[in-house]
Amino acid sequence: WLGRTDLYTNQGKSTARTNADFFTSEEWDVIDQGKYTDWMDLVFRKGFQTSNTLTASGGDEKGTFALSLGQLKEEGTFSGQDYSRYNMRLNLSRKFLDKWEAGGNLYFTNSVQNIGSYETVRSTYRLPPVGIPYNADGSLRFSPFRNDGVKNPLFENKDDGEIRQNRHYRVFGNVYVQVEPIKGLTLRSQLSPQVVYDRNGEY
User: Are 152 and 135 in contact (CB under 8 A)?
Assistant: First the structure.
């Protein structure tokens, strides 16, 4: 509030308690009691990341296999912001009928990213410490600081808050069959399919 006092003083405006444009009586109560709102502490949180991988492999003189499963989970610095990904990789090869071999690899990934609300960050940085997040009955106050159009960022934590989400699926790999009809000559046929699906939404 000292910065606002300097601003009003430099502009030749009244800083008296009777000037509601300077501070309202409710805001003076906040100042007098020192009950300021730390909006960043109220809205933001510590982010974290976890990841896990499971692998298995084996084989014999006629073939090999390798399987890998992975999981990644991230939680952002405010509610509604997170990312999760699951992936799988499979490699196979097998010899048969003396001269033939078949195999391939497959990779699959599925991810969901919740970006979070633009309004959460914007409002958190715009609201002053004298803004009041809650009404007297404990419910959220829609406009914490007068009626200046800045919405309470805590509303975005509710189920009906803004959601911005990206979903991504991808499957790709290759499958091959090869034969060695005579020593030193190998004929190979290979197929490399890929399927990608993305869905982005704001609601």
Answer: no
How many residues are recorded in the chain? 203
Residue pLDDT, tens place only, 3-46: 788 888 899 999 899 998 888 899 999 999 999 999 999 999 99
List Cβ neighbours of 84 (8 Å cut-off, separation of 6 or more).
71, 72, 73, 74, 111, 112
In angstroms, the CA 78 to CA 82 distance is 9
Q: Which two tokens stand for residue 82?
A: 């997170």
Contacts of 184 (CB under 8 A, 6+ apart): none
Q: Are 197 and 168 in contact (CB under 8 A)?
A: yes
The token pair that represents 181 in the structure block = 């009809």
Q: Which parts of 86-173 fold into alpha helices (H)?
A: 118-126
Number of helices (H), then strands (E), in the chain = 4, 7
- Tell me how far the alpha carbon of residue 137 is from its chain's centroid: 33
Q: What angle do CA 23, 28, 32 make, to 5 degrees?
A: 145
**Residue ranges in 79-178 assigned as alpha helix (H):** 118-126
Question: What is the rounded CA–CA span in Å between residue 79 and residue 170?
Answer: 27
The closest of 51, 7, 4 to 28, measured between CA atoms, is 4
Torsion, CA 117, CA 121, CA 123, CA 126, rounded to 10: -160
The predicted model scores a pTM of 0.77
